[in-house]
Amino acid sequence: MPITFVTTSHPARSWPQGKVKSSDDLFHQAYPSDSRRSKSIIQSSFPRRLFREKQITPSSNGFVRAAFHAYSGHHHLNIRLEDVWFSILSQLNFFINAHAEELRAFFVSHEGTQELEIKDAGSINYADFGDMAYLMSRPLQENIVDPTFHTWCMSSFSTTTDSDRVVASVLMMGALQKYFSYRMTLDCGIPSVTLLGVREDWEEILNRPNRAGLTCCF
C-alpha cells in the first residue's frame, strides 16, 4: 500500500510542461544527439495508448530531474521502487566496468570475453527484443560464479512490471559486458503449413502402419 507523507504546508502546483505524443518524440527530446544519429526506433516499451492516456514528459534523467522539479516547482512526487533500484544498479554498472579485471574472480571463472547467444523466431520488425533481453539473462546466470547475482539484480517488487524485468536484465548485461559478449539470432519461422488433399487422406496415412503391423517401428 502506498505511503504518502507531507513535507510542507503550501499547496502543490500543476505540472506546466507539455507532453510528447510518440516514442520518436520522446527519444528526440530526451536524447537529441543520440536521436540524430539513429535511423529509427525498432521497438518501444511505450504503447501508443500510453501517450494518449498519460502526460509523458521527456527527460535525460527521469528520477533525478523529477525530484528536482518537484522540489523547485512545488509538485507532488511519486517514487517507484524501481526508480531507486535501477539507480543503484546503474551506479554498480559503472563501478564494475571501471574495475572489471580487479573484480573478475568475483563474477566469472574464465579469462577474456565469452560469447553468449540466444535464438528466437521472427524478423527485426516483429521480434520481441525485450523478451530476448530477459532470456539472455538466463545463460548469463548459468555462466557466472554466483548464480544468485541474477536473482539479486532482478526487480521483484510489488510494483514490478514486465518492462522493469527487461530493464533489470539489460542493466545486468551492461554490468558484465567486460566478461561476456551477447549475440541474438533471429531464425525465420514458417508462417503457415498447408496439407493438400482431404482429412481422410491423412487419416489413411496414419492408419497404414497399423494395418501392416509396423506399429513397433514408429
From TrEMBL:
InterPro entries: DUF4419 (IPR025533)
Pfam families: DUF4419
Superkingdom of origin: Eukaryota
The protein's name: Uncharacterized protein
Phylogenetic lineage: Eukaryota, Fungi, Dikarya, Ascomycota, Pezizomycotina
